[in-house]
Amino acid sequence: MPAFTHHIFVCGNQRSPDHRRGCCDPLADQSLRAAFKAEIAKHRLGPDVRANHAGCLEQCEYGPAVIIYPHGIHYGNVTIDDVPRIIAETVIKGRILEDLLIPDDFVNNATADHVRQWAETHDRPADPRHDS
Fold first, then answer.
1. If you placed Cys at 5, which of 28, 48, 51, 69 could pair as Cys (CB 3.0 to 4.6 Å)?
2. For position 74, which CATH number holds?
3. Per its UniProt record, what InterPro entries does this chain match (predicted)?
4. What's the CA gap between 52 and 124, in Å, rounded?
5. Are 28 and 14 in contact (CB under 8 A)?
6. Is 123 inside a domain boundary?
7. Is residue 121 one of the residues assigned to a domain?
8. What is the phi/psi pair of residue 67, to 5°?
């Protein structure tokens, strides 16, 4: 079997609603992943394109988060309504969706301005990393 052209990891990490970092799957139903799978099937992209549930992707301040490999595209604040556009524009046409893109310098960076800004906005500590 050839390598996937796109392997989409959908964060399904669950936390209590009052957790300081938020939750990527607040309903605990993997509905975002299911939407990706349905859209992939609709466009008959399988088996070259796959969507999988992932544990915490460490982009909680941008949750729900999605990472598309092998391209290393990190999308944040993804909703079910975004899924058709991600499949059509990113997967099929190869376009980056700037409005969903998590900038490279924010990915896995506990000291990035966005973490501090998020913490200030939510009246929480500035370094929420490694707090499951």
1. 48
2. 3.40.30.10
3. Thioredoxin-like_sf
4. 31
5. yes
6. no
7. no
8. -125, 135
Inside any domain, residue 30: yes
* Residue written as token pair 């524009």: 89
Query: Which DSSP helix (H) or strand (E) runs through 117?
Result: helix 113-121
Q: Considering the domain boundaries, does residue 112 fall inside one?
A: no
What's the full length of the chain, in residues? 132
Quote the CA–CA distance of 110 and 108 in Å, as a whole number. Answer: 6
Task: Render the burial of 102-126: b for 16+ CB within 10 Å, e for the rest.
Answer: beeebbeeeeeebbeebbeeeeeee
- Structurally, how many domains does the chain consist of? 1
61-114: per-residue pLDDT in tens? 787 889 999 999 999 889 999 999 999 999 999 999 999 998 877 776 666 665
Asked if 105 and 112 count as a contact pair (C-beta separation under 8 A), the reply is yes
